[in-house]
């Protein structure tokens, strides 16, 4: 009798285990059926995107109001998702800002794709996730990658949550995770994952799919919103859709030359960095790595050092920190000054935070940098991930002066300006140097729109500067006279 009872208990446990193991399969099957058991899909409408941590070209609204505001419009947006390949392509008509600081809007083509090679979940997650955060791609990935099931609440709603893990690992060695939130009608309403990002740390990527409706026999969301790190990143208003289009392979051809926005591919290897130092005065130095450099200026105070700009990347920031310690030994880098929050001007900040430096930025950037630099970095293996420290932020509203009675650095907010609403310039009276981020003066050419925005501020402040130093390395030293000449002033 005991053996018979044990047999029944064992069988019950096995049956229960089998039911639990098959639950993800059932959830996936129901969700795929609710979406039409598709092999491919195309949808179209209007969209908008943004250059991450910046704001996009917008003919109707050129002045940046904040991080990702305004976004860049994309007209005639079309996307095709091929679940068989698997692959994804999208295109549309958009506009771009001209080179060299121009705010002239020129026509452009948006093109984004995930190739079959990139969709391989053993390949870099940053290249493939745009396929898998779609409802259709997510379910395909869940079916093929041993998904598990849980139940959670999000935005006040109860969901069945499918979770799976791609084969590729993060730089830290940790696994990536992707979650899909399935509602009571078996519709995938939310998909989230995380990606290591230089400024944003373990950056949360969330795609929400709302307004689901029948587009001629196929269920498709009428509104798609993707955020990164909690900030707007991409949106689509869907007005048409078609299941299993016969021309799926050629529906969205690449633009001529294969160029377009948000495409995948590994970046080229960075060139070796050699730091060159220019002494601007006692205790004041310009650091550069030559052509293509993002220059920094260091200022020695009695008890500490201030670094103006962090070098654009971790590699350059590390090189500048090392050079600073050679030039001015036995003093800490207490402050790092940030001209504005664009990604190419914040890339070195995590390295300086790990060094213990306090970030000085304009008040409009405070929320963004405070949140970004204090997000956990478990997916990364960079300097700040290896030496975690809480980022400390000090803000400048319109003006702030740091002084020890001998040397001072004055900081001023430049607004309005099309480039950013959080732009700062720094003036060092001791050496008559004005240091700025993206107000580039090109010798022999008229001032661009950014310099035109700076010029009235300089006239009002009446700063007594001789040298005009840009974060983007100039081919030759520039002066106040160069700025005035570009404005047609003598």
SSE inventory with pairings:
Blueprint: H1 2-34, E1 40-49, E2 72-82, E3 87-97, E4 105-114, H2 125-132, H3 135-144, E5 148-154, E6 157-164, E7 178-182, E8 188-197, E9 201-214, E10 219-228, E11 231-243, E12 276-281, E13 284-288, E14 296-300, E15 305-308, H4 314-327, E16 333-337, H5 343-346, H6 349-355, E17 358-362, H7 366-373, H8 383-386, E18 393-396, E19 399-403, E20 408-414, E21 423-428, E22 433-436, H9 449-461, E23 467-470, H10 480-486
Parallel strand pairs: 15-16, 16-17, 17-18, 22-23
Antiparallel strand pairs: 1-2, 1-11, 2-3, 3-4, 5-6, 6-7, 7-8, 8-9, 9-10, 10-11, 12-13, 13-14, 14-15, 19-20, 20-21, 21-22
Task: Characterise the protein shown here.
The chain has 490 residues and is an alpha+beta fold. The protein is 22% helix and 34% strand. The chain contains ten helices and 23 strands. The strands form three sheets. An eleven-stranded antiparallel β-sheet has the order 4-3-2-1-11-10-9-8-7-6-5, covered by helices on one side. A seven-stranded mixed β-sheet has the order 12-13-14-15-16-17-18, with helices on one face. The chain has a five-stranded mixed β-sheet with strand order 19-20-21-22-23. Strand 9 (201-214) and strand 10 form a beta hairpin. The longest helix is centred in the first third of the chain and has 33 residues, at 2-34. The radius of gyration is 26 Å and the shape is elongated. The relative contact order is 0.11. Mean pLDDT is 91; it is low at 1-22.
Features of this protein?
490 residues; alpha+beta; eleven-stranded antiparallel β-sheet; 22% helix; 34% strand; disordered N terminus
